[in-house]
Amino acid sequence: MLHAKIKKYCRFIISVAFFVITICVAPVEGGDTLKKVSFIPQWVPQAQFAGYYIGLEKGIYRKYGIDLTIITGGQDSPPSDLLMDGGADFASLWLSTGIQMRAGGAKIFNIAQIMQRSALMLVAKKASGIEKPSDMNGKKVGLWGPVFQLQPRAFFRKYNLTMQIIPQSFSVNLFLRDGVDVASAMWYNEYHTIMNCGINPDELTTFFFHEHGLNFPEDGIYVLEETYRKDPALCGAFVLASIEGWQYAFDHPDEALAVTMRNLKKEHIPTTLVHQKWMLERMKDLILPENGEDTDMGGLQIEDYSRVARGLRGMELIDSVPSFTSFYKVIRDKDEK
What we know:
The protein is an alpha/beta fold. The protein is 42% helix and 15% strand. The protein is built from 14 helices and ten strands. β6, α6 (150-158) and β7 form a beta-alpha-beta unit. α11 (253-266) packs across α12 (273-287). The radius of gyration is 20 Å and the shape is globular.
């Protein structure tokens, strides 16, 4: 009962916050009032970020008084570095990354939790005899770097599993060639790649962490505390424009995909429309709240925050857990100093 009341209270606060922002941030059309803003997603252009690209293309950010530049992310341009160095005003980061940064002393705020459910998963071939967690014992499991290992290792502890950990690249080749029995995958990306390589869904066993009590939502929007303090209205406008961009992308998928493909081509990144379509459809599943209410888009639930923070603390990746109110901001109370 207490958990339900806390969840209801958090949703009420989120709804009120967005209502206040909407009143205070009046959309504008063009003119000299536009503020130049830069944003960097975690990776190169793809449907994972379609809402931002279509928002830019359709003038949604300009409607909210923002002249937006989207910087291409990736290994050579880590969003966390550009955000801290002032190279980007806003950045998309995983919730676990944001908490680690804040716990380590970085003065950043999460101002919108775009993904509500985790896309990270483990995939196995049924032919390997893996159909339930206990079947992984003694098997080879491919894992990505530290930030991607929080959920798998929590999953292993939960089911008392012992396996051989194999470093995994961002290719699925090792899994396809049976170099590992279990592979890490993002639902919107690598899982679809595996199927495109000729393995049917009914030949695979999937383990979605959010179905095992380990929901660690990924993409959120982050800003420096200094930027937020100086211009909370701008931060609110950026969040509202981004959410409107995502809503437009989901309502007009063909248009959003066309914009995504143009940006991919501009960066000379090979892909297929089929793959990007799958990605956009999965992003809709991950971004829209389970209750289907658009008013909850972008809200960070306190239980999700606590779950991720406890996971980080349990793996000794942070020394202490920042308070929820020091980490998550939507608007600044007028009496806040």
